[in-house]
């Protein structure tokens, strides 16, 4: 028996519940994990609102929040290869088990061992934010010296994209609110404050011929503002807004497999994909952790320390 944060129906923050649940039983291709750290992402509140039904695993209410975690394997389901009881692991809860919990089940093909020297706290940030950054930049495939605009650079994914892009020799320009400036500039971003500056005018002054690539984390009207700043609309990659093809751009192609997680972990060990963790919350404080991400008032990555 363990404790978990979840929701008994779809809705806003008011539907959150803290409840006891029996330890999940790992099914075929799953591992039962004692959660040490869970990452907090915008995807979590979208799931709570019922906006991403394909990722709930078809589980009944109450459902547990969270999509990424690091912890220790307690038991194996059938047909699990490459993992053993006692392994320190990190991965995705793609079958609906959630991660804001003391124990959960992770999808074994989407779970990897934590390499020596990497903390569980850092590992817990890699499945969603870290590997998304890798995927977006790989999809663009820009050479050293190219220019990239990161629209919404201040969050966990945006800072990961910026740091990884800089390590590849790209010239990085990023947009965000005033509160995001310090963290963005610390990783080498030429920052544009959209609350105080004309984003399009400043961006065109910095890169008159247009950007070689744009990675959008903001979506909506903001995406439509910055998309024309790319030289080629096909080099606009959106992480959250699936309407990007209407602008000629592409949605990020995610690779959720173990190999990509292992690659992300190696990059984190090298310091290239080291997350900017700005808040660590206890499990009892999970609603506050999610609220900071949902209202956009946080910069960097937020995690929940469960054990």
The tally of beta strands, per DSSP, is 16
> Which range does the strand content fall in?
25-35%
What value does the average pLDDT take? 95
End-to-end gap: 15 Å
Count of DSSP-assigned helices: 9
Strand pairing plus helix content: what structural class? alpha/beta
Proportion in helices: 25-40%
Radius of gyration: 19 Å
Q: What can be said about the biggest beta sheet?
A: 7 strands, mixed
Contiguous runs where pLDDT drops below 50 for at least 5 residues:
none
Principal-axes geometry comes out as globular
Order of helices and strands: EEEHEEEEEHHEHEHEHEHEEHEHE
GO molecular function: mRNA 3'-UTR AU-rich region binding; NADPH binding; quinone reductase (NADPH) activity
Pfam families: ADH_N, ADH_zinc_N_2
Keywords: NADP, Oxidoreductase
Domain Enoyl reductase (ER): 11-304
Describe the model.
By secondary structure, the chain is α/β, with parallel strands linked by helices. The protein contains 9 helices and 16 strands. Strands 3, 5, 6, 7, 8, 15 and 16 form a 7-stranded mixed sheet that branches. Strands 11-10-9-12-13-14 form a 6-stranded parallel sheet, with helices on both faces. A 3-stranded antiparallel sheet has the order 2-1-4, with no helix packed on it. Helix 3 crosses helix 4 (156-167) and helix 3 packs across helix 8 (258-269). The longest helix is centred in the middle third of the chain and has 15 residues, at 126-140. The radius of gyration is 19 Å and the shape is globular. It starts with a strand and ends with a strand. The model has no long low-confidence stretch (mean pLDDT 95).
